[in-house]
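for the recovery benchmark. tokens below, seq after
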């Protein structure tokens, strides 16, 4: 290797121009959340301003991968009948292509493949001493940065803190000191003088960036491309840093972690330039030129035709299911009758199956779909030394805090003191076990102390809902801590009821059914809870909403708002365990005698529906052939089996979201693939409700949909890898595979693949709305992010019209079903 270059180009004039492309590159990375607050994230969110096919090209140029499945996938879909000739014809027609279906079939049969990945970083030109192209300086740099990030962001999982607790400690400064003190750096990089190079890097980050860019000599659009490429090399940790910035913004704090990790990667890139030979620099220039020529554009364009044909194939089955269900409905859809009970479920695709079967076994029930946090944007502060848990979609700030209370200050203090002491004792044991001065005797003894707990956990039957304890809560403002006034409570509840289009026709019994998933020894268990609400179940929110709805003062205020809840209506909270399909009622002691029988009828409906749901889920879980009792036991066993990597399929195979009254979908078998949100266009003349639904639940569904999509199509970048090899890093930061350092984001392979087949079909979200065309278009004009998702084909927008289903296409509505 050559020594450090003596000559650094004088590009001082450009140092004022690097900020914009530098910041834009950071914006292209999507955020991620901690393991215990996991939410599904659209990993392409930063590219939403580009057409999906163009974003795919950009990722190919800068990251060396495609958003789409390999050619073999589409060939198998064609041969298996998943893509029909009419689907392919429709896809070709949408693109306005002159080629025929025969031409595309011939092209698919020739099995084209994408070209070798582009290498836009000079670090990629360094090879191992063995000559192996895989690895070299690029991997060495990424591994070093990843290990530093693991130490820096450690949430006290490590027993020896690597980071000064001072808030002024920055990631860039921590990394730079680590590089300077690494005595093995010259050896690990193969660069004589590497450590000396990092010692010469300026301490201040902005100056270090300027010096690095002066050395690299790339600016303008090329600089954004390079910065994006470097972030993609450490995509897991870059996404974590972006998440730190995102969450800080929601809380009104400032954070610049993504800029820091990009600065680190730019310094590494400048080191690559400094030590590069003339041949390496020439190769780097050739790679950059190839990237500008869009080398495999034609192959990707044709694959997008097949991808769209695959999606049209799903939509064909969806339109058929809606038509068949509509034909089966009786002449009266019960709208003129008061239902015996109403049950509001989360829009989660798993709720579709439960709602369908509940309506079959209990025809007198009306089910509704609404966001599973029930319009309660809260942090939940439990007793004890625990941080508040966010129980709302990760895209929203928490306006309120629910603080657990036993009813008096004295009881609360006693409870907190007891839990504090218990946690102190546990922490003392942990420190004693892991300190360098501990003995094997101590470790073995404390290990034996857990034997009874291990045995008890293995033998226990089922799980209690996590939020079942009868603890009241004080609802206060997050800022200031003042309790909510009655008018503020009324406004909160009124928005919730309007959001679910439930402002009249209340049943005697109204159940708010949250959902959660109860599994053991599973680092990814939060991902099986709600896909949007920070890895939390909906039970706490449901209990709070029910309490407010039963409050006489709130009801009086709602009446003034034009929402009259009858005196005979009682609201209960429940939680649906999606792993076992059991529904648990909360706060039974509050239910009046007049509603006991009605609740018993509803619970019988839940139980009967659970039997049917478990039968429907048995096939994908490979539990066919069991009778009802054994199937129920098998599903309970999966939740506590420490070796079970697939306790349930979560939101796998999600494909569409429908905004309409339930009578439009009741009786339709939607196969657990559709998010269902109630929307009554007659109650939304000004379109304000539709605007809020498309700007929030639709965006959330898009995030979930493309998280699953990317975990299938690009598992090596956007998937979490093999769950069997996972090691938790940083407490709750995330997971790595084995002893690796790269943070794995997204879904584990076992969440989307059963060992033989993919359990998630990678299709972009189909959005179907029952609303006038002009109302939908007005929302697109006002909501930029919604318009970007629609116009750039990240979602496929449709509406219910008199002539059937019509698709939105660049300002036009085209009949499709």
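predicted aa per position
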């Amino acid at each position: 290797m050559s020594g450090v270059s003596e000559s650094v180009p004088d590009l001082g004039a450009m140092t004022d121009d690097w900020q914009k492309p530098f910041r834009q590159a950071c914006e292209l990375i999507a955020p991620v959340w901690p393991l215990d607050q996991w939410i599904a994230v659209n990993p392409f969110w930063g590219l939403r301003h580009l057409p999906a096919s163009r974003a795919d090209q950009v990722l190919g140029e800068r990251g060396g991968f495609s958003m789409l499945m390999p050619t073999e996938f589409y060939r198998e879909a064609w041969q298996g009948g998943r893509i029909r000739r009419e689907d392919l014809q429709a896809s070709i027609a949408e693109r306005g292509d002159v080629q025929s279906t025969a031409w595309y079939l011939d092209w698919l049969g020739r099995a084209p493949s994408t070209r070798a990945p582009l290498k836009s970083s000079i670090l990629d030109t360094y090879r191992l001493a063995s000559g192996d192209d895989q690895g070299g300086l690029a991997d060495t740099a990424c591994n070093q940065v990843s290990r530093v990030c693991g130490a820096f962001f450690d949430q006290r999982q490590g027993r020896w803190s690597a980071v000064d607790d001072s808030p002024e400690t920055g990631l860039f400064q921590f990394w730079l000191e680590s590089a300077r003190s690494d005595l093995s750096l010259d050896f690990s990089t193969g660069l004589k003088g590497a450590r000396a190079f990092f010692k010469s890097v300026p301490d201040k980050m902005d100056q270090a960036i300027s010096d690095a860019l002066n050395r690299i000599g790339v600016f303008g659009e090329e600089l954004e491309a390079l910065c994006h490429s470097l972030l993609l090399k450490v995509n897991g940790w870059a996404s974590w840093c972006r998440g730190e910035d995102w969450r800080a913004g929601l809380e009104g704090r400032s954070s610049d972690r993504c800029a820091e990790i990009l600065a680190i990667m730019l310094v590494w890139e400048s080191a690559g330039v400094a030590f590069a030979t003339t041949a390496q620099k020439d190769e780097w220039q050739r790679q950059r030129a190839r990237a500008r020529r869009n080398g495999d554009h034609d192959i990707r364009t044709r694959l997008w035709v097949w991808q769209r044909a695959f999606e049209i194939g799903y939509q064909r089955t969806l339109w058929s299911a809606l038509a068949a269900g509509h034909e089966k409905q009786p002449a009266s859809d019960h709208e003129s009758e008061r239902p015996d009970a109403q049950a509001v479920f989360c829009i989660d695709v798993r709720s579709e199956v439960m709602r369908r079967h509940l309506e079959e076994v209990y025809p007198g029930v009306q089910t509704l779909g609404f966001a599973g946090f029930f319009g309660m944007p809260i942090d939940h502060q439990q007793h004890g030394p625990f941080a508040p848990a966010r129980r709302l979609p990760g895209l929203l700030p928490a306006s309120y805090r629910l603080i657990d209370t036993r009813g008096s200050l004295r009881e609360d203090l006693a409870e907190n003191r007891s839990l504090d002491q218990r946690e102190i004792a546990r922490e003392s044991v942990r420190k004693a076990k892991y300190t360098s001065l501990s003995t094997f005797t101590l470790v073995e003894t404390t290990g034996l102390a857990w034997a009874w707990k291990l045995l008890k956990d293995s033998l226990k039957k089922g799980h209690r809902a996590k939020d079942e304890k009868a603890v009241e809560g004080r609802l206060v403002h997050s800022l200031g801590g003042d309790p909510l006034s009655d008018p503020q409570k009324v406004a909160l509840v009124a928005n919730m009821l309007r959001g679910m289009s439930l402002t009249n026709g209340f049943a005697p019994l109204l159940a708010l059914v949250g959902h959660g998933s109860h599994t053991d020894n599973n680092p990814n268990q939060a991902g099986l809870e709600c896909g949007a609400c920070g890895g939390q179940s909906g039970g706490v929110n449901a209990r709070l909403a029910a309490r407010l709805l039963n409050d006489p003062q709130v009801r009086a205020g709602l009446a003034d708002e034009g929402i009259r809840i009858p005196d005979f209506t009682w609201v209960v909270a429940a939680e649906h365990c999606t792993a076992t399909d059991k529904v648990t009622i909360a706060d039974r002691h509050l239910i009046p005698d007049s509603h006991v029988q009605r609740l018993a009828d509803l619970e019988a409906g839940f139980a009967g529906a659970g039997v049917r749901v478990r039968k429907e889920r048995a096939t994908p879980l490979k539990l066919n052939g069991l009778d009802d009792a054994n199937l129920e036991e098998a599903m309970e066993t999966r939740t506590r089996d420490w070796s079970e990597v697939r306790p349930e399929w979560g939101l796998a195979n999600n494909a569409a979201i429908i905004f309409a009254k339930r009578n439009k979908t009741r009786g339709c078998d939607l196969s657990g693939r559709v998010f269902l949100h109630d929307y009554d266009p007659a109650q939304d003349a000004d379109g304000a409700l539709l605007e809020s639904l498309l700007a929030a639940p639709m965006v959330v569904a898009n995030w979930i949909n493309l998280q699953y999509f990317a975990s299938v199509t690009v598992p090596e970048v956007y998937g979490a890898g093999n769950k069997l090899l996972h090691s938790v890093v940083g407490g709750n930061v995330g997971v790595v595979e084995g002893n690796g350092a790269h943070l794995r984001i997204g879904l584990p392979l076992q969440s989307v693949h059963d060992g033989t087949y993919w359990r998630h079909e990678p299709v972009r979200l189909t959005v179907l709305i029952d609303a006038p065309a002009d109302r939908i278009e007005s929302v697109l004009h006002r909501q930029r992010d919604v318009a970007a998702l629609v116009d750039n084909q990240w979602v496929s927008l449709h509406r219910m019209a008199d002539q059937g289903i019509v698709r939105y296409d660049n300002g036009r509505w085209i009949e499709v079903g």
